[in-house]
Write the C-alpha cells for this entry.
Amino acid sequence: MAKPFPPHPYLHGHHAPNRFEADAPDLVIEGEIPKDLAGVFYRNGPEPLHPTRGDEYHWFDGDGMVYGFFIEEGRVSMRNRWVRTEKFELEKAAGERLFGVFGNPMTADPSVQGKRYNTANTNIIIHGGKLLALMEGAPPVVLDPRDLSTLGEDHYGGTISTTFSAHPKIDYATGEMINIGAMINGPMGAAEIRYDVIDRTGTLTRSQVIPVPHMSLMHTFFVTENWVVFPVLPIDTDLGRFMRGGPMTAWVNDRPSKLALMPRNGSADDLRWFEYEPRHMFHELNVWEEDGRIIADVAAANGTALFPDETGVRATHSGTRQSLRRWTIDLNANTDVIREEVLNERDLQFPRPDDRLMTRKTRHSFANINLESRDARVEGLDAALRFDTVTGTEDIYHFGKGAAAGELIFAPRLGAKTGPEGEADGYAMTLVHRANAPGSELAIFNALDIAAGPIARVLVPFRVPSGFHCNFYPADGDLYARALAH
C-alpha cells in the first residue's frame, strides 16, 4: 500500500510527486509552433515512487521520470515514463522503499544489500544511437527514444559496469563522448575516478584510472578541443563519517578547490594540478581554449546549501547564491593558481550554451534565474535569461512571482547555420510551472529575444514536478536520426 510522503520541502509545492505516467497525443498550444522547429525535448528528474525509510530525503534521491515532448508539423505530443531500474522494480514489487537515501547501505533493507542503487534521474541524452538516462554512480540506462520504455543498462561491452557521469560531454566536432566515473571503488575504497572516451558509434575506445585527493562529489568536469579538467571540490562523500554520526555527503570547510588538467589523449602521468579558494560548482556553461589559456564559464558559489558541512550545519541559500563566473587556467604561466572573475551576478542555475559548439568558444548563455524567490532551490527559479558574455547584455523574461522554471536550453531551427556564425540560430525552451497554475507549460522563445516572451506555450494539463536536466534534438540532426534508426 502506498504511503503519504513526509513534510519535506522537496516533496511539496513545485516538487510534490505526481506518481503517474501519462500519454497526451495532441497538446493544446497557445501561440504557434514555428514551421522550422521540429524534434524532441527530453527532460529527466526525480519522481519518488515511495517515501524514504524515515523522514530523511534529498531532491537528488527520487526515482527517474523522463518526459518527452515530440514536436512535428506544428503539433506536440507528450509522454512520461519512470526509468525502470532494478531499484525501481524491486521497490515497486515490495510496495515500499528498500534502499537508503543515496544508496546508503547502513539504512537499506537487508533484501537489497549488494543490489545496485540506480535512480537514473539526472540527465537524458542521445549518443551512439541510444537514448541514455543518467545519474552519478551507476551505468546509463537505455530507453526507447519514442515510447520511453526501459531497455536496460548499457555497460559498454562489460567495461563500464559501475559508475558513470550525469554530465558526459559530447564533442560535436568529433562525435566522441567524454565521460568520467566517480567513486569507482565504492564509498570506502581508494579515491579514484575513471576517464572514458566513447566514439560516435558508442564504442569505448579508451579508459584510464585517475587518482584524486579525496572522494569529491564530481558532478561535472571540463572538456576542450585538446584538454580535460577534473574539478576536485570541497564536497565529498565519506561513509566512515556517517558511521561516526556525521553526514555521508558534506561540504568540508576550508578545503581548497583543485583542478587537474590532462590532455584528452593523456593519462594520470600527465596530470597538472591547479588550486583556488573553496568553491561550489556543479554546472558549467562552456569551456574552450584561447591564446594558451583554458576558459571555463561556470555557475559557482563560495559554498552550498545543498548539503551540510562536515559538522552537520547547513548554509542558507542567500549565503550561497551562484553567479556566472569565468575561471581561467593559463597553460604557459609559472603558477598553479586559477583566475576568477564574475561575469553575471544573477542567482542562476543550469547555464547552457548552443550545445553544437560545446568545447569551442561561445558567447550566449541560456539559464534559469531567480528574481523574486527567497530560496530558489525550494521555491523555484522564476525567470529565463540569455546573457551575452562578450557584451554583458541581459535578455530576461519573468514568469511571475512564485513560478518555477526549469533548465533553459537552445533548440536549433531546421537547417540552422553551423559553426560560430550559427550560434543561437533557433529557439530556446524551458518547462515551467507558474504559481498556482493547475498545469505546466513548455515555453518556447526566439533564442535571441527572450524578453519578448514565449512565441508558443505548450500546455500540459497537470503540474510537472521540478526536475533536472533536459536536451533538445532537432528532427534533421544526426543524433536523433541515429537513435530512431537504432
About this structure: The chain is about 5% helix and 40% strand. Residues 86-94 form the longest helix (9 residues). The radius of gyration is 21 Å.
